[in-house]
Specification:
This is DUF2909 family protein. The protein has about 60 residues and is an all-alpha fold. The protein is about 85% helix and about 0% strand. It contains 2 helices and no strands.
Length: about 60
């Protein structure tokens, strides 16, 4: 159960990072590096999400 909650939290963090990055892109345009930082955070969160999903399937906690 804890693994599923952690997966959901990481996914929500990814969606939040996506929204924040879109806001930076609209407000700052190409003058800021904040969009790049937001993308780096989103890629790291995606890697963490994939690792959590792989771990969950490997242990059998997500396989049904």
């Amino acid at each position: 159960m804890l693994l599923k909650i952690l997966i959901a939290l990481v996914f929500l963090a990814m969606v939040t990072s996506l929204a924040v990055g879109a806001g930076f892109l609209v407000r700052d345009g190409s003058r800021s590096r904040r969009v790049l930082v937001s993308l780096k955070v989103r890629v790291a969160l995606a890697a963490a999400l994939l690792a959590l999903l792989g771990y969950g399937f490997y242990l059998g906690g997500l396989g049904g």
